[in-house]
Amino acid sequence: MQLDPDGAQPFAGAFDGQAVAALRKCFSGLAESARLAAVPGLAPLLGPADALARGLLGTAARPVRALFFDKNAERNWALGWHQDRTVAVRARREVPGFSAWTVKAGIHHVVPPFEYLERMLLLRVHLDDAGADNAPLLVVPGSHRLGRIAEPDIASVVDRLGTAACLAETGDVWACAAPVLHASERAAAPARRRVLQLSYSADALPGGLEWLGISC
Q1: Does domain 3-201 bear CATH number 2.60.120.620?
Q2: Alpha-carbon torsion 149, 153, 158, 161, what sign?
């Protein structure tokens, strides 16, 4: 698959064994999946992801949000088909076009105008293998080109465009267009599957809004 036209593209071995070990150590204190406001020592470890993002989005690209997923035999969850709709910011400010404010894990989230999402990139850094039986990310190729997809229309889009599994080995990175329809099933043969998901943008936000970013 390719980022254009499919909305997802693999980069094999983007993080070497030493870099993966450093990231695993960075997250060793987390008991479960988490929205990350600040993780001491994380930012200096993101060099390979930063370089990928700049190559795909331009030199202004920087990480604006981080999520950590830790799926395993005890936490073998599933997630239905959806588009990512919200962004994380440092503080709430009322700005035209930004709506549906929520607070998740103490972090302010807001639905921005869709064009911000269309220009965002998700990089999924795999800290473990994600084979066919271990709940790889599933995507609908080409769905990122359809704009905001209404909830009642998602099933028909999935049926029409089909799905693809983003298989990965430790150290691989999958780059995804932020609006691509994606999902995750329960693992058939659950093993640990840790993923650091980084959102990148080259845009500045208006009206005094600031991306949450990677602050440590």
Answers
A1: yes
A2: negative
